[in-house]
Write a structure and sequence with these properties.
The protein is an alpha+beta fold. The chain has helices spanning 2-24, 31-39, 51-54, 78-88, 104-113, 126-138, 175-179, 280-289, 349-367; strands at 61-65, 71-75, 95-99, 118-123, 145-148, 161-166, 181-193, 196-205, 208-216, 231-234, 241-245, 265-274, 292-298, 315-320, 323-331, 337-345, 374-379, 392-397, 401-407. The N and C termini lie far apart (56 Å).
Length: 416
């Protein structure tokens, strides 16, 4: 009995530490979500993990891998779960659909929707749904409906839904999700746009979806009909330097074959960010204004130092015909901040480096500290003249929808 009491005390202590950390990270914002986090026994949904890992605020825990070790299913970090629950604004009595099962998040949804609400969770993997059903039953949440299906078609039998939460990385938004969302309902989705994933909260308005905010996140990718693979371009004939494109390769990728044989051009922007300052809006801005935006990664086992991004696994990059460039940073002399710079290769490398640097400066001057873009989603058949006029923006065409990023034209007061 003493061991049981000690374990219970330890769980209570870790739960309180988690709640405190989530407040510190500004992931918890309302009493309703805090009550849900406190109520659900998080460790019982992660029986393979230690209680310390189960209550870690920023650690995602993989629950299934394929034969190559690639994660197929995971329990998201508590921070991501908390802010997505906050984005959803679930109230008692609502009908909620979760795409991507695991059990834990569905339990949080059940707490928020209450006894008068309905929660349905759907997944394509029978191992995942079996696990979710078992864990939900064991922890007193058997009222959650677990469905085995490809979520591309939603779950029409239990629609409409007041809230739909997607907990897998999503490249597209299929029509069923919009059609099964009630008027004024909310869709929270980790949407991949030009290689960048953001948890976007959308409100349904007159046949379209309009964003009400977004947060940086990461998820295992969608399986089934909604799966979408990035395309990889190797710029020097080996796997050392790879450029990942989300919406198709450049028109003439072969033009880059000799780019790395040219001298590396370097320019520095004068744009300074604090050491712990987030600049995810710069990522979205460059993805909007640079036509062939991509993500550069360097294989650490093959790295010759030809390129030197600050983070070898992820660097904002772009291509312009026979030139490519990437954004990097360098520490300021006091080591308290960093300055953005651009490195470029190709016959017009110096000019392309300046072009990208000018976009970084424009973000700093006109968008930094502002609200970021409005993200709206229209059916794929929507003609151009029915989309909003864009001063600073981009239309991203997908299979089922057209995603529109529109940035404000008025310059906010910069927060440097």
């Amino acid at each position: 009995m003493a061991d049981v009491a000690t374990e219970s005390d330890r769980v209570d202590e870790l739960r309180e530490q988690l709640v405190d950390k989530l407040h510190e990270l500004e992931a918890l914002r309302t009493e309703a979500v805090e009550r849900a986090i406190r109520a659900v026994p998080r460790h019982l949904f992660l029986p393979e993990e230690s209680v310390e890992d189960a209550y870690a605020a920023q650690r995602a825990l993989v629950t299934k891998r394929d034969e190559h070790g690639i994660a197929l299913s995971s329990v998201s970090a508590a921070r991501i779960q908390a802010f997505m629950l906050e984005q959803a604004e679930i109230r008692p009595g609502m009908r909620v659909l979760e795409v991507g099962s695991g059990g834990l998040n569905a339990a949080y949804l059940a707490e928020l929707a209450g006894e008068s609400g309905e929660v349905t969770t759907v997944d394509i993997d029978p191992d995942v749904t079996a696990r979710a059903e078992r864990l939900l039953g064991d922890t007193g949440y058997s009222r959650v409906r677990v469905v085995l299906a490809d979520a591309e078609e939603g779950v029409a039998a239990h629609a409409p839904f007041d809230r739909i939460l997607i907990t897998v990385g999503t490249w597209d938004i299929p029509p069923a999700w919009v059609e099964q969302l009630s008027d004024g309902g909310r869709l929270v989705v980790p949407l991949r746009m030009r290689g960048l994933t953001r948890s976007v909260v959308f409100q349904r308005e007159e046949g379209r979806l309009v964003s009400r905010g977004c947060e940086v996140c990461g998820f295992v990718p969608m399986q089934g009909a909604g799966a979408h693979q990035e395309q990889l371009l190797l710029v020097n004939g080996t796997a050392e330097i790879g450029l990942r494109f989300d919406d198709g390769l450049p028109a003439e990728p072969g033009l880059l074959d000799n780019a790395v044989r040219t001298p590396r051009a370097e320019t520095w922007t004068g744009v300074i960010v604090g050491r712990w300052e987030s600049y995810e809006m710069l990522q979205l801005y460059l993805a909007t204004v640079l036509p062939d935006f991509c993500i550069m990664a360097v294989d650490p086992d093959l790295d010759t130092g030809l390129v030197s991004p600050r983070h070898k696994g992820f660097a904002m990059a772009a291509v312009d015909k026979a030139n490519f460039a990437y954004v990097t940073t360098r520490r300021t002399p006091d080591d308290k901040s960093a300055e953005f710079g651009v490195h470029a290769f190709g016959p017009d490398g110096p000019a392309f480096a300046e072009t990208v640097a000018d976009h970084v400066r424009a973000w700093d001057r006109e968008q930094r500290g502002g609200p970021g873009p409005e993200i709206s989603v229209y059916p794929a058949a929507t003609p151009d003249d029915q989309l909003p006029e864009l001063s600073i923006g981009r239309v991203i065409n997908k299979v089922h929808c057209r995603v529109v990023l529109s940035w404000p034209t008025a310059a906010p007061a910069a927060e440097n």
